Amino acid sequence: MNHIAAKRQKGVTLVELMISLALGLVISGAVIQIMVSNSVTDKFNKAVASAQENGRYIMSRLRDDLLMTGLYDPLSPNLSRLVDIVEEGAFVRNHPIPVPGDFPSRPALGAQQGADGANDTLVVSLQSDRDCRAYDLGYARVAPVPDEEFYVVNEYFVEDGKLKCRGFDGRVVRGQKVAVGHNGHAGVTLLDDVLSFQVVYGITRIGATNGTTRPIQYISAEELPQAYINNSHVVAVRIALVVRGDGEGFVTQPSRFKLLNEDGITAPDLGLYKAFETTITLRNTKNFARGAA
């Protein structure tokens, strides 16, 4: 009798087998779902991190580039004196943000407002030993002037979704000098995957702010020529842009953004996009405006 009972206890029944299979499927499905969810979350986090990193990098880079806007020091021993530096200094200080028509040999060069929400173009003037691409444009890099300085014009623009910069010898575009060195004006890429790049300019008017030279309003590039005629000075630049995160992080519906003075825009796909904005005080032009008050 015991021998028969022992035989009956061997193996599993069909019901037990079906229950085991069902439980295995449930557990396997849960594990797969967790793995898929973790993968999606990981991709999303990587896209967020890359957007944050790229946005912070470009804002820091632009801030470093633009802080010197309007700088012109005629007492610098490194300043090239191929032209009248008194006249050139006055030109740089009064045109820290050049506008189209300022340069005879390149009349289109200047800050521009993009039509119908298109990307803006930012152009700045300053004294430096290199342009925004780190090119010396043919100036001396050996003794007795190892870091010869000159009038630099830097242009920032978006082309094919890339934020780029290119530099010019201000004396060349003013028709005072023949171009030498890296004067091909090819743009170098600062950042990929830029959806929108917008700029407005904070202006002050002499005597309007009791000598504080704080911006009394922000205007677009197309308003700058009239502002200059009215004896206003640009003392700040406000920049906003939208960048796309790298990788395969996606959102459920296209993101919308409102940048500065522009109408709202919608991202072209479900990628992870993020907006960044900063205001850069142009300390050199503020000091000039304060001294002219």
Describe this structure in words.
A hairpin with a 7-residue loop joins strand 8 (256-257) and strand 9 (265-266). The protein has 293 residues and is an alpha+beta fold. The chain has helices at 2-8, 14-66, 85-94, 170-173, 224-229, 283-292, and strands at 122-128, 150-159, 162-169, 188-191, 194-205, 217-219, 232-244, 256-257, 265-266, 273-281. It contains six helices and ten strands. The chain has one domain (45-292). The strands form three sheets. It has a four-stranded antiparallel β-sheet with strand order 1-2-3-4. A four-stranded antiparallel β-sheet has the order 6-5-7-10. The protein has a two-stranded antiparallel ribbon with strand order 8-9.
Task: Write the SSE topology.
Layout: H1 2-8, H2 14-66, H3 85-94, E1 122-128, E2 150-159, E3 162-169, H4 170-173, E4 188-191, E5 194-205, E6 217-219, H5 224-229, E7 232-244, E8 256-257, E9 265-266, E10 273-281, H6 283-292
Antiparallel strand pairs: 1-2, 2-3, 3-4, 5-6, 5-7, 7-10, 8-9
Features:
single chain; 293 residues; alpha+beta
Number of domains: 1
Structural class: alpha+beta
Task: Summarize the amount of helix as a percent range.
Answer: 25-40%
| Beta-strand residue fraction | 15-25%
Residue-averaged pLDDT, rounded?
A: 86
Number of strands: 10
Main β-sheet, in a few words?
4 strands, antiparallel
- The arrangement of helices and strands along the chain is HHHEEEHEEEHEEEEH
| Major sheet: arrangement of strands | 1-2-3-4
Structural Rg: 30 Å
User: What's the total helix number?
Assistant: 6
Keywords: Membrane, Transmembrane, Transmembrane helix
InterPro entries: N_methyl_site, PilW
Organism: Agaribacter marinus
Pfam family, one: PilW
